[in-house]
Amino acid sequence: MKRFRIASLADIEDIESRPYDSFMAHGNVYAALSDAADRHPSRTALSYVEDPQQPESTRRWSYRAFIEDVRRAAKLFGSLSGPAQPRVAMLLPAIPQAYFTLWGAEAAGVVCPINYLLDAEHIAELIRASNANILVALGPSPELDIWSRVAGLRAQCPGLQHVLAVGSGADLEEAISFDTALANQTPGGFDPDGLDVPNRLAALFHTGGTTGAPKLAQHTHGNQLHSGWSAAQMYAMDEHDVIVNGFPMFHVAGSIVYGLSALLSSAEIVLPTLLGMRNARMVSRYWEVVERHRVTLLAAVPTVMSTLLTVDPAGASLASVRALLTGGSPLPPELAVAFEDRFRVPVRNILGMTECAGVVSIEPALAERVAGSCGMRLPFTSVEAVFEGSGHEVRVCPPGAPGILRLRGPNVGPGYTDARRNAGTLSEDGWLNTGDIGHVDARGRVFITGRAKDLIIRSGHNIEPSVIEEALMRHPQVQFAAAVGEPDEYAGEMPVAFVVLKPDATVAVEELLEFVKPHIPERPAHPKRIDVLEGLPLTAVGKVYKPGLRLRAIERVIADRFARDGLSDRVEVRGRDGASGLSVEMIPAPGVDVAEIDGPVRAIMSKFAVHWTWSP
């Protein structure tokens, strides 16, 4: 496939002046991967770092070997499903077998990658909702326990005909050894019937929060190819690149934004151990691994960026690295500056959504970084800020004016498996509402200033507030409950909750915190704190006004942080709810010169994704 240079909106428009098939030559992911393997068969596709302290343990797959294992997986799933279409649920960390499973399942049928950190009941709901007839899961492992839940999943999901276990020689309880079955398949002879159709369904990715009721977004082959190849052009990626991708495959970032983009480019993907960046030994040896593999591109959410700032390269050379790619949660501009200053590695921001195969906009690697920008739209797509007029007509905002961001293009999927969920998100004419408040400037750069939706993003992990709220409402003494995200130095956001008790109720906050735990499917969604209020802020029509609660949480977090550093008597924190979103105003105490405290205040605020200004 032809590569394109993208450094400006003019470059994107130049690409769009040509036929679409000159940009994307393939109609399905399998054909595109096969083409990449044919072009560079001997180059390394995957390097799996099993132990960062033992370089000799690293396992490698050439592109020839990689595509052969993808074909084997596709044939395996086809043989197991018989006349039915293979629909493969996947419970795997980001290891090589996950790549063979994901792309092999898409070649043969449909894949549904599932967050293995969810509880068994929630996983079972997703398996049933996806109509999966095959499950591929990590076998017994001392590092990560997924297998203990599999027996229960089989009982709860009668549609599962086969279970395959990855990487274990233990008693598999009627399961099939994935590794053995894969090896028994011949690499050739796979002929996908009717596959070369871009609108053919490829995958189901759960979204709407990785907690909450099942909500499966559909991806076609065309959606994934457009996002993956467009991202590669924005990164200026080619076969000489090496990217560290520690993102899980159940997340579109791991599978498409940093995964498929690299594979379509014949680049090398370094997989940083079975636990990824949750492996403390990997984090401590990160820069050593970067030097050893001559990595050119890093990929990390802002929280991992913050962690890497504390890891001393200890003499490791970073000369090969040309950019760090980030997204998944708001990027504080000060964090980007700190990373660039320390490591001399340019930072490039990405805005994505599961519903559009992972990518809305990207800051091109060949362009300058603009503070606060999420980059430019992909070729052949439209991204615009809109507002709803008094007659409910939708109007496009002029450049720089804030509105609700929406997009349309080949990356936008056909919606959710339950079409009733499309309302308010996907319009009949193909516009996808991101739920973000922002604007597009005259140069085509996209900016986010707030979220219209209430999703809480903790370290790139999506949490549906309703899960927390419903758990609290189960308590007999709670009358109203609302959950929001509170800014956090490490996680970006943490879930917190506010409740109004019934008259004469006297329940303690500690009791509420303990009460909700068994009713919330996943530990990351447990609220950090619960505040009891006399009433919740409401809109004119009686709905809970969550921006007011978020502002309350922002004020308290910043004020508490200032108190820790002895600044509380020198500066007052005052939240502002303006047309462009929530922000904080810093007001110096009487007799305090701003110049005296500007440095310490900036040092603290650099750790939070919160817009702030000094009081005029």
How would you characterize this protein structure?
The chain is 29% helix and 25% strand. The longest helix has 19 residues, at 63-81. The chain starts with 8 loop residues before the first helix and ends with a strand. Strands 2-1-11-10-12-13-14-15-16-21-20-19-17-18 form a 14-stranded mixed beta sheet, with helices on both faces. It has a five-stranded parallel beta sheet with strand order 4-3-5-6-7, sandwiched between helices. Strands 24-25-26 form a three-stranded mixed beta sheet. It is built from 17 helices and 29 strands. The protein has three domains: 9-438, Rossmann fold (3-Layer(aba) Sandwich); 456-536, GMP Synthetase, Chain A, domain 3 (2-Layer Sandwich), CATH 3.30.300; 550-614. The model has no long low-confidence stretch (mean pLDDT 91). α2 (29-39) runs antiparallel to α3 (63-81). It is an alpha/beta fold and 616 residues long.
